[in-house]
What does this fold into?
Amino acid sequence: MAENQRILVCAGTGCASSGANKLISALEAEIKLQGLEETVSIVGTGCQGFCEKGPTIVIEKHQVLYTSVTVDDIAEIVASDIIKDERVERLLLIDQVTQKPVAKLSEIRFFAKQKRIVLQNCGIIDPQKIEEYTDRKGYLALQKALKEMSPDEVLEEVKKSGLRGRGGAGFPTGLKWGFCRGAAGDKKYVICNADEGDPGAFMDRSVLEGDPHSVIEGMLIGAYAIGADEGYVYCRAEYPMAIKHLEIAIGQAEEAGYLGKNILGSGFNFNLNVFAGAGAFVCGEETALMASIEGKRGMPRVRPPFPAVKGLWGKPTNINNVETWSNIPHILRNGSEWYAQMGTEKSKGTKIFALTGKVNNTGLVEVPMGTTLREIIFDIGGGVQNGKAFKAVQIGGPSGGCMPEEMLDTSVDYDSLAKAGAMVGSGGLVIMDETTCMVDIARFFLSFTTKESCGKCTPCREGTKRMYEILDRITKGEGKIEDIDTLENLAHAIKETSLCGLGQTAPNPILATIKYFRHEFEAHIIDHKCPAHACSALLSYSIDAEKCKGCGLCAKNCPTTCITGEKKKPYVIKEDDCIKCGTCIDKCKFDAVIRA
Amino acid sequence: MNAKTFKKENIKGVIFLCTECQDLVDPKEITLDQIITKYKHENGPLIPVLQQAQEVYGYLPTHVLQHISKAMRIPLARIYGVVTFYAQFRLTPSGRNVINVCLGTACHVRGGAKVLETIEKELKIKDGATTEDRRFTLEVVACIGACGLAPVISINNEVHGRLLPEHITGILAEYE
Amino acid sequence: MAVLKLTIDGREVSVPQGTTVLEACRMHDISIPTLCHDKELTSGGSCRLCVVQIEGMRNLPPACVTQATQGMMVETQNLKVRAARKTILELLVANHPLDCMTCEKLGDCSLAKYAYEYGVTGEIYQGEKRNAPIDDGNPYILRDPNKCILCGKCIATCNAVTERSVIDYAYRGFNTKVAPFMDTDLKDSNCVYCNRCVAICPVGALVDKSMIGKGRQWEFTKEEVICTFCESGCKFDINSKNGKIIGVTAKSADNGRPLCLKGRIGSDFRYNPNRTEMPFINQDGEFVQIPWEEFLGLGNIVEKINSLAK
It folds into this structure.
């Protein structure tokens, strides 16, 4: 019979979109119906990480994960797992290798190779309740810092841990804090950069949604070390749940005396504000972010002066991203030596990656630095979807690059990735298979950076546009062979002369794809063919009249009604209206649709 | 109008209106003034004020921007520069339903562009436009952060994931 | 003041502390191309044309905002630097209307000057060009946003006047432009046509309408004059061609109000050789010249005085 226990329902943005909130209501109703409300509690948690199989539910007592749960499954879960203590086998995850259901969370391959430090509370606690955080050693690190350590000792501890900024460039965090601490000024700020703009990255969102207090605690400790008394969390407006959870957490922390004046009787004051961004990728750049808080256009300015000397409203300011701040409490609580054990010589600790694209297990993954891409993609991610061949992994978002199969044994750390022409970036890993065209991917990233360029400096404003135009021409089969050289020359000039990081890294996706996938560029230019059959301008669809049985399935499913015909007679595709989506080819049972 | 009919509005010390004028004043304007008063003395208030004004009006009409400029003593050109810089701000009213098509990397590799093309053909509008009957506004966004469900669109913040082009007609039909 | 020693293009030079690399170069007659820089305004470092190579620095930093330091090794003319500048110019020219023959700015255009110097044609990066309507709705300033290189000088100089800030950057990325509120014509903004922006524009995006078609820069002789309309004492140039005054241009982009509309138009009258010495009166819809005594209502005052003297 049921004893005191908790059912953890993932209510992060991913699972919420697949109906997690309905599950929570259904569970609550069922628990009440069974008269279990005294003993069983339902917790809506942050992201549990396994977005692919969402919505997911964890029965905490047995550490069982149920995947792709629907409202119809609720009664059975309660009746059998909670009441009879028997697993609902059909909702368990099937192991890809053994093809058997896996009963324990720790035995699931997706989780087994992970090392969850920053994510240790995500998906386990109710992020809207401070007690759940403090029950799991929350705010102990702050107490230790304020009561037992001087600001210099805190700074030293962070330096010794070897933590480097998780926002992309990997600047040593302790060193950065030291600059700000050493800067002259009566007022200093700390800022949490939660303007996670890289398409395909959602780790910061998940941490803010699932464990907001860890970020607040990290910022408090940082502010104490630096000598700041005010902070901002600059969060994308596209993340309403993160903003909401953060605001709740700040309210609770204020009430509990962790924020405000004379914190824990130490004499240290700290005030934290949330600032919702208004939709501009470039605001992830430090100086643009500060301009945005000041109510201006988010245009980066020239450095020096660095923010550590002249930042927000001209005051010394230290900016770190969500994941960096969230690491701090763990370092203080467990010590820098413990932290420095994880990772490689120059990249310590763990890193969270958002695994997306054509991979079996999309989701949130935290691994020690130094893990290879192959381990992440194949052991944790379960390989490429639908048995297709792996082609490339895009790492580091619009500032990073695509790495081919032969680079999969690259260790994931700042230096190895930079050497390979990519970067850790914020940690998006997008997996691409044989049906992804690499020229198209380069074009995609350039269309992104072109749209997001602030327009201030010439090379980025004009140059990204021209690179995009050249790539667009190539994907349409209108490229010239000298375009590849033009692209490379322009790319180098933009890298070297742009004002901020956005422009300086915008050419990376092009340079990396030319480096590793030059043959695909050449195929588009010389043969007017897209090897991946992805560039629609180079494709044409037609129906083989011999093979077509006139079943009409293609016409029924065509989203643009460009296929016409009479039953039992061959159908015809009208090319002008065809958007080349390939639905017909997938639907045809007689292989009658020809793609050329 | 008789001075005696003045009464204190229960708006926090901001605006006093006589009972007769009250009906003549757009309640939205009162809210706008409250927002401005709330932020006026804080640091860097422009973006939160614009965000909240947009929440009140649904978009940022010219007269609202002029009002903000005057009340906050920020030059009009600077406000216009900020409004046109950030993707969130709109200068024209949106349709009854706002479709955000995600074209983040994950959605792109899983066929987001085809989804967009299908919607564009279906509604006969392009990114940023509103249908003539004001039923839909179509906007392309970089990432909604629901990459696990790629490709996704969100309509009025309701996310539809794991889409194929053939799903579109059915989904759009759900919105009036 | 402390003196710094640095090496520019292999030459050791000394400059006072607090000097930028650009200033250091210009002090020693080393030419560096600039478009967005103006010594009177805060430099935004946005055009990137003044990039140089500095030992130990990542990428190519812009000289205009980089502080000179002791022992710095600067290269201003090597192949890499020149190639980068050329690319930037190619990008600007590729998005620029090349109607130079009829452009008012011909002979005084910074973009044309550098394009000539670096052998830039704008042919490499052909693609979409800006295509914004030309603002011709007022009698004073012609604004062609398609010629604008977004250096931001006009915005900075407009901002330097209190309560003005008529224009600012609008939109972003490739669509960025300089615009008044709601992207209207200047006539619908609160512009007072002081023409400071015109005086500072390095290209033909902002043109003084009164001078259109009246002559080329090299045909003008300039005379610096101080305006006496108010106590500000703005400096400006009187431009004349073949002894005939063509127009007035403002000089300084600094704070204050160099040459307001009143000063400019008033000065135009004052220095105009065609200026008439006699008053006119409207008689049945026609202006008829009359003597000063009559205009001032003094009629036969001379006779009266004469008669009194008797």
About this structure: Residues 3-77 of chain C form a domain with the Ubiquitin-like (UB roll) fold (CATH 3.10.20.740). The interface with chain A takes residues 44-49, 51, 59-60, 62, 65, 67, 80, 83-84, 87-88, 91-92, 94-95, 124-125, 127-128, 149-150, 169, 171-176 of chain C (CB under 8 Å). The longest strand of chain C covers residues 235-241. Chain C has three domains: 3-77, 130-271, 280-309.
